[in-house]
Write a structure and sequence with these properties.
Elements (H helix, E strand, L loop, with lengths): L2 H13 L4 E2 L9 E8 L3 E8 L9 E3 L7 E2 L2 E2 L7 H7 E3 L4 H7 L2 E4 L2 E4 L13
Parallel strand pairs: 1-7
Antiparallel strand pairs: 2-3, 4-7, 5-6, 8-9
Length: about 130
């Protein structure tokens, strides 16, 4: 291995950052049946699930309940830059009741149904 590749491999983990996983609401992605079809093997069911767009999820300070994103944008306290925001904030899951009542996403036998206006009054659901 060249010195450049070794240096890149050693430095790469320090360059990456990601959003923290919230612990308040566990994720319960609605299942969706897919089929994978080939000419020689026909079609076979492949288990899958859909998930809600991160833009619709609750993002909060990871050790509390203060929002990292509000009506005026990202919190300057928790998110002065992307690195600090990723370290400080957590993105929450959506439970089964939330998918249906809050976001209008209903599981069906062979797919999902998206309500344009959910029971909560939210308009549009983004998966």
């Amino acid at each position: 291995m060249s010195a450049h590749r070794l240096l890149a491999a050693l430095l790469a983990p320090g360059l990456a950052c990601s959003q923290q996983l919230g612990t308040v609401v566990p994720e319960a992605s609605p299942p969706m049946r897919l089929e994978r079809c080939t000419v020689g093997g026909g079609c076979k069911v492949v288990p899958a699930a859909v998930t809600l767009d991160a833009n619709w999820r609750w993002v909060h300070e990871k050790t509390g309940y203060d929002n990292c994103f509000g009506e005026t944008g990202w919190s300057s306290q928790f998110c002065p830059d992307g690195q600090k925001c990723a370290e400080t904030c957590a993105i929450e899951g959506v439970d089964a009741a939330g998918y249906e009542k809050v976001y209008g996403v209903k599981s069906l036998e062979n797919g999902v149904e998206l309500e344009f206006v959910a029971q909560s009054g939210n308009v549009g659901s983004r998966l």
